[in-house]
Each structure stands twice: as structure tokens, then as C-alpha cells.
Amino acid sequence: MAYATADKFIALVGAYAAGAAPTIWYHESADALAAVNTSGFITDGTPKGVRVGDYVIHRDTTAITSDTSMHKVQTVSSTYPGAVDLSDGTVICAGANAD
Fold first, then answer.
1. Is residue 18 scored above 60 in pLDDT?
2. Which end of the chain has fewer CB within 10 Å, C or N?
3. Would residue 2 be called left, alpha or beta, if left means φ above 0 and alpha means ψ between -120 and 50 degrees?
4. What is the helix (H) or strand (E) element at residue 46, kind and residue range?
């Protein structure tokens, strides 16, 4: 599934220290980890203010047991609207519960 600009993609913690700190973003959609870490997945990074070194928390909403992953912004295209390449990502909260 492709990124939709209508998906929830918001800054949780901004770079308030004169731009020195990375921004932490939250993205929520029915996209699996394999789709999110595809180069250029986020298509409108420039108007949103995404920068190299920022972090993106992604929650897959396909099911209650879906995973949440963390990614680092690797590149933001200089061509408007700024395609974003995210790192492969790490699952930080597995949705499965085996107990």
C-alpha cells in the first residue's frame, strides 16, 4: 500500500533547541514495515519540515496485533515536495501477545 498524504503524520516532539535536536514524527496507516522502509515512501517531507536525522514512529493499523516500528530519516529530496527515505526500521512494540 502506498503512503497517502491524508494518513496521520504528525510531529510529536519538535526540534526546539534552535533546530539542533531531531524531530520525532508519528505515522499511522495500514502500511506494513516493508512498505514504510521503501525509498520515497513519504512523498511530502519538505512542506511538513522533515529533516535528515529525524525519527519516525510508524504504527501499522491493519489489525489490533499490528507492530509499531521506529525509523530514522536517511534522506529528504531537494525536489519539492521532498520524497523521504527512511531506514529499514526496528519493531519497538510487537502487536502479538503469546501468553
1. no
2. C
3. beta
4. helix 45-48
